[in-house]
Write a structure and sequence with these properties.
mainly alpha, 21 helices, 0% strand
Length: 364
């Protein structure tokens, strides 16, 4: 049943994307089905949700923001599972908010989002809760409310400390600072090369110098997580993460260049250009990818805005044109690369993928 619901969401939304129709009924049915898929997901063995329940119960340390949310939930009598469901549903509603604001056709990004992101995020409470703040932050940046964007990113970072790096969006999305952005990217490329050949350990040096500060203001939990993400270099796993970033950036450039001149008053061109600037920070994360594959989450959280940009191009191109078919095929391949690279190659299938389809509380 789970597989049937999963495939039905994707196929119906792709059909509506192809036909250039928006359906509120299908949109909200898709949200309902995605909520069932995500909320019902359970691992049949010890996993992330068990850790989060221990955080809720006060047995394990939690980040400042997540601890506040859990304390608030306990204070009003909301159980762990109910607050988990609430946060997942809020995340889906926020995703729909962005899609309706920034997509000419809602169903293209819904189909892409449902194909991969909902699987990997089902039990990652910190990630999808911080994601809520990040989506609002990116929309605030797009609408040129930079101070609000900064506050929202700090809010996201209080829940998942790694989200603090998204403050770099304030740099990459400022057209007046393009030269600084390029310089930072070039420096990151040099650091990446030095790390790969085993010469540079700049990141480890910075962490060693700032360890006391991190522990003082964020606690030993934050410091231990940061150290665990930088202790061991990946062998060649970083190549997969480089591939994720390069393919998505290529598709964004294509989706911008192929936008027809008649594009709804130019707002789609402005939005797609904004998303390209957002994704520039992905190149700044290359040095982190060399140390630990878990840093890939930093570019994964940008996928929804990417899907909206791809969808705008797909919608505006003539229905049966070769360019439109190429965009669709390329995006499907990109989603499959993320799906296989993350859920099959990087992660044991028995850890996330198989339980998602075989161990759903509501559908199996």
């Amino acid at each position: 049943m789970t597989i049937v619901v999963f495939l039905t969401i994707i196929i119906i939304n792709l059909f509506l994307a192809y036909s250039k129709n928006n359906s509120r009924v299908i949109l909200w049915l898709s949200v309902f089905c995605m909520a069932l898929l995500m909320c019902g997901y359970r691992r049949p063995f010890y996993g992330d949700l068990d850790n989060y329940q221990y955080m809720y119960d006060g047995i394990m340390d939690a980040t400042i923001g997540l601890n506040f949310i859990f304390s608030l939930a306990k204070g009003v009598g909301i159980s762990f599972w109910n607050i988990h469901y609430i946060l997942l549903i809020i995340m889906l509603l926020v995703a729909v908010f962005l899609i309706r604001k920034c997509s000419l056709n809602w169903h293209f990004p819904i189909a892409c989002f449902a194909s991969y992101y909902i699987i990997i995020s089902s039990d990652q409470i910190k990630n999808h809760t911080a994601f809520i703040f990040l989506i609002f932050a990116m929309y605030a940046l797009y609408t040129e409310h930079k101070k609000m964007a900064m506050l929202l990113i700090v809010g996201a970072a209080s829940i998942h400390y790694s989200f603090i790096v998204y403050l770099l969006l304030l740099l990459s999305c400022d057209d007046r600072k393009k030269h600084i952005t390029r310089t930072v990217i070039y420096i990151c490329f040099i650091l990446t090369f030095l790390e790969i050949i085993g010469i540079g350990d700049v990141l480890l040096y910075i962490i060693s110098k700032m360890g006391g500060i991190i522990e003082k203001y964020l606690g030993i939990y934050a410091l231990s997580k940061l150290q665990s993400y930088t202790e061991n270099r990946t062998r060649f796993g970083y190549l997969l993460l480089f591939g994720f970033q390069i393919i998505d950036y290529y598709l964004l450039i294509l989706s911008y260049k192929w936008l027809p001149e008649d594009n709804r008053g130019g707002w789609t061109k402005k939005f797609n250009s904004f998303v390209i600037n957002v994704n520039l920070i992905g190149f700044m994360f290359f040095p982190l990818f060399v140390y630990n594959q878990q840093w890939y989450r930093l570019i994964r959280e940008l996928l929804l805005v990417n899907y909206c940009a791809y969808g705008n191009c797909y919608y505006l191109l003539p229905r049966n044109s070769g360019k439109r078919a190429y965009v669709l095929l390329s995006v499907i391949i990109s989603v499959l690369i993320w799906f296989i690279g993350d859920l099959v190659v990087k992660t044991e299938m028995s850890g996330v993928l198989i339980p998602f389809f075989t161990n759903n509380e509501f559908l199996n």
